Amino acid sequence: MIVCFDIGGSAIKGAVAHSAERIVPLGRRATPLDDFDAFASTIGDVIGEAGDKPDRIAISITGVVDPETKAIKCANIPCIDGRTLSADLSAFLDMPVLVANDADCFALAEAGAGAGLGHRIVLGVILGTGVGGGLVVDGRLINEDGGFAGEWGHGPAVASMAGTPPIAIPAFDCGCGQRGCVDTIGGARGMERLHQTLHDRTLTSEEVTTLWQQGDADAARTIDVLVDLVSSPLALTVNITGATIVPVGGGLSNVAPLIAAIDRTVRSRILRKFDRPLVVPGECRIEPGLIGAAILGLGGEAQ
């Protein structure tokens, strides 16, 4: 038995896991942001709800672990930023602790219990507030020791012209310190940025997608540009990884026509031709971070 966690800047969610199919939720707590002892104690309190002492804990968390130093980069939770989180929590809690990026855990969940079942290479993609991803090969997470594999959302990859007919697109500044990243135009905030740039009108991503599905011309133009901009770097990532399924999570994954449009465009731009959907909504609709952390903590084998 292990205890797994899905931790973000707002909440710490825990569960007892005996397998990827047997996950029992525990308490949900607010995430302490500025006090590491409070952060670790909150995790300890949730573990206490499990009753028996777990063999280990496994954590899906926003942020990326450096594979060499084991330090985590996590802007959303300042009290853990720069810490060797796995070692520090292990010392505090007196038990083994595994830590993985939330997008990686999403990919692991989809490979082991979702749309990626039966596929050797699964590229999990997040289209949420921003853009992220994770890679699972032969049932195992590539980033088990930390790292940036699957992070197709960062790097100056956005085209300078997009849409039909083509229109000039600025290289927006990205929070990672670079310019022109897919993250700046591909997630919910990116969609809003594109709509403002194209039409000088501020709308939420929910408003843009709703208007698009209602036939609004401006919203359709924004979606056309976004799909064009996102699909080429995603197609390149599919070519490089050899992924045969690309499950999508995050808020925009709930807009089925958008995912279908990205799928059609990506399949038209890759070397291997699929006569079935490739980019699909994720199937682990409830807490994929917990499922992925459970798989990681129980041995890391998705299939």
From TrEMBL:
It is an enzyme of class 2 (transferase). It comes from the Bacteria. Its EC number is 2.7.1.59. The keyword Zinc applies. Gene3D superfamilies: 3.30.420.40. The keyword Kinase applies. Pfam families: ROK. Keywords: ATP-binding, Carbohydrate metabolism, Kinase, Metal-binding, Nucleotide-binding, Transferase, Zinc. SUPFAM superfamilies: Actin-like ATPase domain. InterPro entries: ATPase_NBD, ROK. It catalyses: N-acetyl-D-glucosamine + ATP = N-acetyl-D-glucosamine 6-phosphate + ADP + H(+). This is N-acetylglucosamine kinase. The lineage of its organism: Bacteria, Pseudomonadati, Pseudomonadota, Alphaproteobacteria, Hyphomicrobiales. It comes from Rhizobium herbae.
